[in-house]
Amino acid sequence: MNDISKDIIEAELISGISLCINDFNYDKKEVLIINANNIALLNFISTFNINVHYVGSLDNISSNINTYSRAIELKTSKFDVIVDLDNKTTTQYASLLKSNGILIINLDDLNINKIKESNFNVKMPFKIEGKFYLFLSNRFHPLADFSSQKVDLISDFKYYNEGIHRAVFALPNYQKQALRGVIRN
Question: What is the span of the domain harbouring residue 94?
Fold first, then answer.
């Protein structure tokens, strides 16, 4: 059996979690990826029929990705999905995210105060390969609005599937108890 790299696992999970949502049509969607040193994420998410914008300096990324060295250069003003893998705050994204958009950031740990300060209706932490992330949206819930049919239609997934999607959002009882009233699960 072949092992799959952590970068591919992260790429597929973040792509699947943000794109396999009911009512999320890929046509004319705008996705912004910031602070991602995972070239697999950029190349994988760009295979969908969406507009991908990347702020960073990675080389060898797909030619259909709009690349910017600084966020100030962005030509699109509102995004359906924003993924920032090196920022622990959500305050600067209110003006960039569409009202029904999805924001995914990383977390150092499950710090209740960091999660509380996120001004979103839906706040769901998840864990990939020992790293914590936070799914945020004012409209979509990553489990209740999940579309298994969309996962089945994407043949490029080597790792991600419906069971994995649901499993990454599972928390031990002591963590669920500590986060009660802070997250929506």
Answer: 6-178
